[in-house]
Write a structure and sequence with these properties.
This protein has about 50 residues and is mainly alpha-helical. The protein has two helices and no strands.
Amino acid sequence: MGKNIVRGYNDESYPPFPSKTTLFWRRNIIWQLIRFVVLNLKIMRIIVGGHT
């Protein structure tokens, strides 16, 4: 009978930490509002295009 070997997680098992630049863009309210509007325009284009 084989023994079960328990090993700890290595660094590759964890997700990478975001950079300071990435965190800045994620937290920037103005950028988030711009992205929100752009996403909504894309969705509206799909909806309006499907109803014609």
